[in-house]
């Protein structure tokens, strides 16, 4: 207390100066209209700038959530466009459309938004890590998509993270079809650039043209039908000459991929479990016969 009093006594002239300055400023701006309006305008400008900075900072930190919501919404809208296109062709009685009732399954699945935290595009065995795991409802063999199209399939799951085998992996093998044509094949990546892949084993009698879209077939028990994969660029003969090898430009930009959605659908899960049970039964019976 004594030190405080000594400090105030030593610098009292400065405190008196500050008090007089404050009083003079108050009198100046309160009783002089011009100075008062100038002060009011300046204060409003400073306050407005501070509010603007605060809004910019808040917007920046909310971008992650906004991007996740947009990705999820884009994925839904992509499927809605597909369903509307299918309904339009149904009304016009175009016989090239098939299994249109399968699109009803799209109403039964939910999308779990996730963020890509690790990714590679230049290796034969590329893998992707997302920030959602078993605690978020993720399990093995779930399909992963982006707002643009197919991404890959969940391979390993931890509590809060999961590893995805993307399309850009030489072991990836996804059943696809040429949209509105009815011809099937298997999507494979052979390495090299990250925006090109191939639809293998397309029948020689298939009729299609460059620029046609390739979408998921819905027969893999992982992806619903109609999820976009890419567009046809070139057509080659297979090595044995018995089928076509179709080069695609992928819809998903894997080099810039940040936000994805994991497909959670009870019907697809049930189909996958039945397929596994059937496979196990076949292998068991085969061993017994031996």
TrEMBL record:
A GO biological-process term: regulation of cell shape
UniProt-listed InterPro entries: Cell/Rod_1 (IPR042177), Cell/Rod_MreC_2 (IPR042175), MreC (IPR007221), MreC_beta-barrel_core (IPR055342)
Gene Ontology CC: one annotated term: plasma membrane
Rod shape-determining protein MreC beta-barrel core domain boundaries: 116-263
Keywords: Cell shape
Recorded family membership: Belongs to the MreC family.
Protein name: Cell shape-determining protein MreC
Source organism of the structure: Segatella copri DSM 18205
Lineage of source species: Bacteria, Pseudomonadati, Bacteroidota, Bacteroidia, Bacteroidales
Gene of this entry: mreC
């Amino acid at each position: 207390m004594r030190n405080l009093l000594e400090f105030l006594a030593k610098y009292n002239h400065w405190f008196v100066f500050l008090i007089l300055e404050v009083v003079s400023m108050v009198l100046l701006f309160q009783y002089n209209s011009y100075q008062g309006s100038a002060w009011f305008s300046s204060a409003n400008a400073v306050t407005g700038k501070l509010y603007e900075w605060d809004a910019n900072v808040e917007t920046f930190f909310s971008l992650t959530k906004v991007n996740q919501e947009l990705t999820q919404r884009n994925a839904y809208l992509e499927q809605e466009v597909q369903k509307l296109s299918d309904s339009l062709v149904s009304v016009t009685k175009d016989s090239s459309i098939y299994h249109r009732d399968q699109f009803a399954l799209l109403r039964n699945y939910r999308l779990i938004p996730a963020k890509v935290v690790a990714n590679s595009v230049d290796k034969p065995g590329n893998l992707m890590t997302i920030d959602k795991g078993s605690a978020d409802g993720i399990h093995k063999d779930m399909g992963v998509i982006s707002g643009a199209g197919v991404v890959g399939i969940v391979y390993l799951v931890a509590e809060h993270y999961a590893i995805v085998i993307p399309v850009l992996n030489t072991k990836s093998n996804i059943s696809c079809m040429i949209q509105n044509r009815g011809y099937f094949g298997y999507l494979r990546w052979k390495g090299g650039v990250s925006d090109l892949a191939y639809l293998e084993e397309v029948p020689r009698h298939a009729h299609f043209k460059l620029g046609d879209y390739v979408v998921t077939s819905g027969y893999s028990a992982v992806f619903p039908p109609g999820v976009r994969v890419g567009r046809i660029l070139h057509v080659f003969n297979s090595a044995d000459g018995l089928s076509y090898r179709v080069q695609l430009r992928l819809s998903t930009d894997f080099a810039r991929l940040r936000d994805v959605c994991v497909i959670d659908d009870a019907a697809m899960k049930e189909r996958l479990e039945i397929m596994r049970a059937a496979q196990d039964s076949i292998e068991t019976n085969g061993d017994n016969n031996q």
